[in-house]
Specification:
CATH topology: Lipocalin
Oligomer: single chain
Distance between the termini: 48 Å
CATH architecture: Beta Barrel
Number of domains: 1
Radius of gyration: 19 Å
Helix content: under 10%
Order of helices and strands: EEEEEEEEEEEE
Strand content: over 45%
CATH superfamily: Calycin beta-barrel core domain
């Protein structure tokens, strides 16, 4: 009996290793899919789409905050190193046109989104509330000595 890597099954028809499945917690991110207008102390546009396979949500942003034009991509999901169990914490990493790499930890509920720069409990935190129809997310970033407010409004998706 030989392993056929192209079909994922053994030569005699026995099933091969089970294909991994995305963490069920990712479904809560469906509400972000689409394009959003960003207004307030930061302005611009954000778009979210699922990466093929459904393991990660990809965000692309183009905006101005504090007089700086910032473009970024963000990969959102649950870390899963080969040979290990998937993490149970929703995280993301942002890469910017300014060379920044930023790591975040997130929690979503039906009514709120909380994002920490770094690990949960970090003093740099974004807290926001969803509108009843899910088409607006209003909140603010806060950190010791600063912060700014922003509103995301769905324009498509």
């Amino acid at each position: 009996m030989t392993d056929d890597r192209t079909t994922g099954t053994l030569e005699q028809g026995s099933p091969g290793p089970a294909a991994p499945k995305p963490n069920s917690g990712l479904r809560q991110l469906d509400r972000l899919v689409g394009t959003w207008e960003l207004s307030g102390d930061a302005e611009g546009r954000l778009s979210y789409e699922w990466m093929e396979g459904g393991f990660f949500l990809i965000a692309r942003g183009d905006g101005v905050q504090g007089g700086n034009t910032i473009k970024h991509i963000e990969i959102i999901g649950y870390e899963h190193a080969p040979g290990r169990e998937p993490a149970d914490v929703l995280t993301s990493r942002i890469y910017t046109n300014r060379g920044d790499t930023l790591d975040y930890t997130h929690e979503l509920t039906d009514k709120t989104l909380t994002s920490w720069l770094g690990p949960k409990g970090s003093p740099a935190v974004f807290r926001a509330t969803w509108s009843e129809d899910g088409n607006t997310l209003t909140g603010a970033w806060e950190w010791p000595g600063g912060g700014y407010s922003q509103t995301l409004t769905r324009i498509s998706g």
